[in-house]
Amino acid sequence: MKSGVLNLVLKRLAVAIVTLLIVLFAVFFATSMLPGDTASILLGQAATPEAVAGLREAMHLNDPAILRFLRWLVGLLHGDLGTSYANEMPVAALIGGRFVNTMKLAGITTLISVPLALTLGITAAMLRGSVYDRTVTVLSIGVISVPEFMVATLAVLLFAVYLKWLPALSSVNEAHSLADLVRIYSMPVITLTFVISAQMIRMTRAAVIETLSTPYVEMALLKGASRSRMVLKHALPNALGPIVNAVALSLSYLVGGVIIVETIFNYPGIAKLMVDAVATRDLPLIQSCAMIFCLGYLLLITAADIVAIMSNPRLR
Amino acid sequence: MTVARAASSRRSFLGHSYNLVGVVASLVILAWTLVAIFAPYIIPHPIGDIVDDDYFGPMRQGLWLGSDYLGRDMLSRVLMGARYTVGISLAAVSIACFSGVVLGMIAAVTGGWFDTCLSRFLDAMNSIPSKLFGLVVVAAVGSSIPVLILTLAVIYIPGAYRFARALAVNINTMDFMTVARVRGESTIYLIGSEILPNIIRPVLADFGLRFVFIVLLLSGLSFLGLGLQPPLADWGALVRENIGGLPFAAPAVIVPSLAIASLTISVNLLIDNLPQKIRDRDA
Amino acid sequence: MTNLVEVRNLRIEATTDAGRLVEIIKGVSLDIADGEIVALIGESGSGKTTVALSLMGHARPGCRITGGEINVDGKNMAALTERERARLRGTDIAYVPQSAAAAFNPSSTIMEQVIEVTRIHGLMPPEQARKRAVELFRALSLPDPEGIGARYPHQVSGGQLQRLAAAMALIGDPKLVIFDEPTTALDVTTQIDVLKAFKSVMKAGGIAGVYVSHDLAVVAQIADRIVVLKGGEVQETGTTAEILSAAQHPYTRELLAAFEPKSRQIRADEDSRPKSLLRIDNLVAGYGPVKRDGQPVIRAVDSVSLVVEKGRNLGVIGESGCGKSTLARAIAGIHPAATGEIVFDGKALERAARKRTRDQLREMQIVFQYADTALNPAKPVEDIISRPLAFYHGLDRQARSKRVDELLDMVRLPRSLRYRHPSELSGGQKQRVNFARALAADPKLIICDEITSALDTVVASAVIELLKELQRELELSYIFISHDLSVVEAICDEIMVMYNGERVEQITPDKVKAPTHPYSKLLFSSVPKLDPTWLDGLVRDPELVRQYGHR
Predict the structure, then answer these.
(1) How many CB pairs under 8 A join A and B?
(2) Contacts of A234 in chain C (CB under 8 A)
(3) Is there a contact between C171 and C117 (Cβ–Cβ < 8 Å)?
């Protein structure tokens, strides 16, 4: 039985690696579709044809796409992310500190939103049909239905404009005390928590409700079990797989959320870096940022699937 | 048989039962659709004209929704914005759902390597976060209406495919599919006549849900300045250009936000409150 | 109060899809004395499970107890609060579900779930509860009583799970146990062991019981009294002997009549040299990867040969997993055989349906067990029946419409049904439509895969009668796949017994009393008889049971 689990996990990892390759190729391919020539863009309109041709040669732009892709891949494996077009700094150096900032933001949000959303989702499922459940459901539909920037602007309107509790912009460098830290992170974290919790609440609630309608939960009822025993002992252990998936999928909304939130609050993270890079069409930077996001997303989904496989009692 | 009406807010009409939330939601959607179609004929001012001396003007007679950051009429701009937001999203969702559903049904019916390869590839595409995909494409090829429609469609094809395939795989295990197969039926008959009628309701609901996702993504891209480019402006772009009015809670920033919310919330509510066919005949 | 259970004028309402309220139990009254086992018998939809669950004060989601009294041990379950009911569940009244496989929580061990009642109600320390459970396992003659509790539900067979569910019900020393069709999902050879185990523990403990079933013969073995339900009303009540020998109500008589041996028509025009319609030689079909010699790793059908003659029927009988359905699918080409020959009407057939000609496909039709999944729920009956007419015969719209009427007449369905969707038909009607579609192709051979198994007894025997009539009119041949001996006996000229993918014996119906192969002996002797003393008098060769019983 144990080897069955191991096999499934290995298979899942293999799938993840294949997926990663496809994704990397897609990212590379999309950024190579640039109309016009990278070399001429770099050199500007005044460049002579000879200079453009020379640069093309130097950048290996005349090679077939697959070769350039492989070269890029080998570079990645050596930690070489390329050089920024915009300011000719190594991409790795540009990303470094910003990456840490984004991870801090994502980490804090996860720590707050996961327990919050699970509690709300599970309790709403337990009290299905009650006023509490309906309120939670309506609120989460509302939050899911509006764009992230609206949640963010509402938060600014409420906390910064009317209540004046928090600053509208975040600047990490000014953090000198705990109070500063709270002030800096509150707005982005509140916004992100709203955005990803709503999805997680809905999916958790649905997963628990589905297991609550199984015959073994009815059996527990007919044994005289209390409502909380039915949920905690019988429904939850079997809803674990779907819930873990819900968490992973919702956390992946972090990627979309982070892009908006960092832009709105001017937070110096990797997403802001990427949005700025798009404005200047700095391809190596875009490629690297996109790759980091895809990698994070893939890690989350793969980890969730592996937990789901391991939580399946039939495989124990 | 003793029959009594259950106390509920549902009403019945033409063999279907409706409820109030669903009706209101569909009216809102209908209204925005009409606006999207007729916008050029009903706007009070040309969208480029500066009609107010002040910027971020308040709501008043003649300028029912105030003015924007340049003093242009907000009402006209929101009405025209509907055209872009609804139109682009609808075009994108139609392409995405049509291709996704057809591919999904074919994959479910044929199975084998076609199914495996397609599923693996589209699953991989699905693991690129949607906003990121949008950013990368816009960075590479720039932003125009056809590019936006195509990009949004491509982003949501894997999801539509996955959804339709899962439904079709369930139907495919049914004995009536086996019966049709050993009758000698073609794949086209199998997907069009046996599978599609059984999955059309959830597929339409999924269409609505995906429409919401696309509206949100398009608005998000426009808000980042990567969607529709000036002088065109959809609702997301309207929020972006008027974000300066946020500190004074100007209608110019609030109204387009509300427009997006009213559309997406209505679609979500409609999906949750679709009219139900009354099944028991002896009613 | 003299009786343990006194139900008076019970009424239960259900809410339909459209939000209408329908009364599904219309004033049921019944009594159960201490230590008495009462059977609730009726077809699907008669409300027997609903009544049984109401004894625990439970109504399934969408249902509501609206009137009457349910007195169990002096307490009116209908009037108690949910908390008070919960206190009685598991201790005073316990429940044995229809499908134990679904009623066990897959993520917890069997022992944990068996003793859960004692934890919930604080009856005894867990150590003592485990000891008591092992005693119960032993009393229910479960194998490895010490170790079985440590396993997870998916590691135990269906027959064992059903007995473990009984242990789970008995651990709280209930006064009343409700059995909800506990043996319906089991094979006959397994059913016997489970029934015997139930009967002995119930008698030993003097526990009262409610036994819900649709099978009169099973009920006859275990119940003291029988309550016949139909349409949410009690039709008849009496002791088991009374009901079996002197039933008053027409519905009860119909149920009994379904058990009478069918008169078989003797073919007068017995042709001296019957021509073979289908011949199968050494057919092998299976699953899993194909080995080097072209054989599958798992052989579901192992070198089976058979012959079906024109205008005659072959029955294939065996228990679940014996390969009979795979055989049907291999013949029809749905699951192509690995090796072997199929000769149909004088010509060799391709193994895969995809490679057969349209006419070959037309002449051999297959009808499946579950009409629910065999009919496309999105299409009206006329579309379903007229598709083969258009596909094989190229009939135009008018001709099709006329033919649909004729086909509906043939299967004895009113013509007005053609506009209905399958969900608006009863189980028997659906199976008739399913059959009409096969007839629409004008076949020579119809493979019937368990087509009566999902139907109620009375409806099933009507369908069998219909098949016989149609055979006379249309000169059809049937291959009749079933696990139910009485069905096969009623319609087939030859009976083939399958075990573990192989054909073990082929006999004619008049010889089923005297099979020669040991497995056929075990199988045929395990079919319950209406005689209430049958189970107690049944002596089975333990060696045979060990060899062929499904543990």
Answers:
(1) 130
(2) 105, 108
(3) yes
Tell me the residues of chain A between 225 and 264 that have a Cβ less than 8 Å away from chain B: 252, 255-256, 259-260, 263
Asked if A219 is an interface residue toward chain C (Cβ–Cβ < 8 A), one would say yes
Q: Any chain B CB within 8 A of the CB of C342?
A: no
**A4 close to B (CB below 8 A):** no
Contact A7, A314 (CB under 8 A): no
Looking at the DSSP bridge assignments, the partners of residue C446 are C365, C478
Inter-chain CB proximity C90 and A222 less than 8 Å: yes
Domains of chain B: 14-277 (1.10.3720.10)
Measuring CA to CA, how many Å separate C332 from each of A221, B181, B183, C386, C393?
Answer: 46, 11, 10, 21, 20
| Nearest C-alpha in B relative to A150 | B257
- Cβ contacts of C106 on chain A, cutoff 8 Å: 216, 238, 313-314
In a 3-state reduction of DSSP, which class is residue C23? strand
Domain ranges of chain C: 5-257, 276-529
Which site among C50, C80, C95, C107 would you substitute to test the A interface, given the most A Cβ atoms closer than 10 Å to its Cβ? Answer: C107
Contact state of B225 with A22 under an 8 Å Cβ cutoff: no
- How is residue B65 written in tokens? 């929704």
In CATH, which superfamily holds the domain spanning C276-529?
A: P-loop containing nucleotide triphosphate hydrolases (3.40.50.300)
Distance separating alpha carbons of residues C48 and C233, to the nearest angstrom: 10
Closest to B151 measured CA to CA, from B217, B66, B106: B217
Domain pair C5-257 / C276-529, same fold: yes
Dist. CA B24–CA C302, nearest whole Å: 63
Q: Please give chain C's pLDDT, 551 residues, in tens.
A: 578 888 888 999 888 766 778 888 888 888 898 889 999 988 877 888 889 999 888 888 888 888 888 888 888 888 888 888 888 898 889 999 888 888 899 888 899 999 999 999 988 899 999 999 998 898 888 888 888 888 888 888 888 888 899 889 888 888 899 999 888 777 888 888 888 888 888 888 888 999 998 888 888 888 899 999 888 888 888 888 888 888 888 888 888 887 776 655 555 455 555 678 899 888 888 887 777 777 888 888 888 888 888 888 899 988 887 888 889 999 998 888 888 889 988 888 888 888 899 989 999 999 988 888 899 998 999 999 999 999 999 888 999 999 999 999 988 899 888 898 888 888 888 989 999 999 999 999 999 988 888 788 788 888 888 888 888 888 889 999 988 888 888 888 888 998 888 888 888 877 777 788 888 888 888 888 887 888 877 777 777 777 776 54
d(CA C154, CA A158): 54
- The rounded distance, in Å, linking the Cα atoms of C172 and C90 is 6
- Nearest-neighbour CA in chain A from C154: distance (Å): 7
Q: Residue B238: enclosing H or E segment and its boundaries?
A: helix B235-241
Closest chain A C-alpha to C164 CA, distance in angstroms: 13
Of C59, C16, C62, which is closest to residue C424 (Cα–Cα)?
C16
CB contact under 8 A, A216 and C102: yes
Second CATH level (architecture) for the domain C5-257: 3-Layer(aba) Sandwich (3.40)
Distance (Å, whole) CA C368 – CA C450: 7
Neighbours of chain C (3+ CB pairs under 8 A): A, B
Among B45, B254, B120, which Cα is nearest to A153's?
A: B254
Strands C75-76 and C63-72: antiparallel
User: How far apart are the CA of C120 and the nearest CA of chain A, in angstroms?
Assistant: 6
CB contact under 8 A, C374 and B5: no
CA distance, residue A214 to nearest chain C CA (Å): 8
Burial label, B70 (beta-carbon count in 10 A; 0-12, 13-18, 19+): middle
